[in-house]
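Q: May I have one protein plus its fold?
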Amino acid sequence: MLYRPRLKNGKLIPLSWPVAAYRLLNHICWPLRDDASYLLRLYDRFFWAFGFFIFMQHNDAELRYIIVNNNNLDEMLICGPTYLVLVEIHLRAFQLGLKKEAFKRFLQKFYAEIYIDDYFIVFTFILRRSSHPKLYANIQKSLRPIWFYSLLYFSTLSSYVIMPVVNYLNNVKAPLYKMYYPFDITPNPIYVAIVLSNIWVGFTVITMVSGEDNVLSEVMLHLNGRFLLLQQKLRHDAERLLHVVGDRNIADGLRRRIIEAIEENVRLYKFAEDFEREFSFRIFVNLSFSAGLLCVLGFKVYTNPMASFGFIFWICAKIMEMILVGQLGSGLIYTTNEMSSTFYECNWELVLLKSGDTKANVRLMKTLLLAISTSQKPFVLTGFKYFSVSLTAVLKVSSTGVELL
């Protein structure tokens, strides 16, 4: 029923646990398989609409609680963080759910063309195995801190899962969040429905936050790895030409390698543009809400730490999320910014010195100038061109939250 990522050769991708949880527990966002039946697609659209209604109902109930307690700052601050998170995920999750087919096509392209497996098959004159175990291991190592803060996000659910049991033992019928309903929720059928909807909303929020962060980070790391492999290949080809190719053909040989590198660079940049187009809106919403959320969370933890146990996990996870994702964005900016330097440092001057073909030298220099001029602009992942995913940007957002506090 649900889409499962595969490589181009059909091999299943081993999903990290946050992405696996995202796939299995968040049907609002995760796409269906290509061969899903019409009835399944119809059910999927119905579930999206029904989920939207549940989020609207939660939005209304939490807003009513804030309005009712507008003279009690402590009570308002208890509801404030959950309400901000609810609105943020309402926007992000249902925008993604509305366009999940485009998200699936993006994932298919990523895993088929960009994803760096522990090994892959390439064709040259013969079939051979080319592996990048060190790069793959570095990518997996870079993802571990992101898995850790995903665990912190899931830890915030513990209090909401335990609360129904505590309420039952104390014979209390109250929602799991600070909410005010304009009707009586004490009848058993209504109360059970409300508690189940509270739990479902909680899992939808957590899986959306941790799952999309992991997908975003994984794409940035593998895309960054592809640019690194491109730079490494160009340097290796230039070195090999100086030691293997004859003097007369060396300039044209380097020119062909530069053209191949330009084509690969263009292909990676086109994917990067698709990457930004897919995530731009959700990045904008995420960073837009982050400053206010950090301010409210920090103030609540500071004023009443004993009653803010779940919030402590969330604020730690939020700060780690912003710093780690921003660091990955800065790394991608740095790597793509190095492409023009890689072209310039491909030993073209030694090739010109060794080559005896003047026309080939002119062709090489024209191609080299084209390569340098078209690769001078680094790729910067942004949210609607307003926020950039970089360490500098997220530190500014964090400092804004502290200033508001």
Q: What stands out?
A: Strands lie at 120-123, 127-130, 382-383, 387-388.
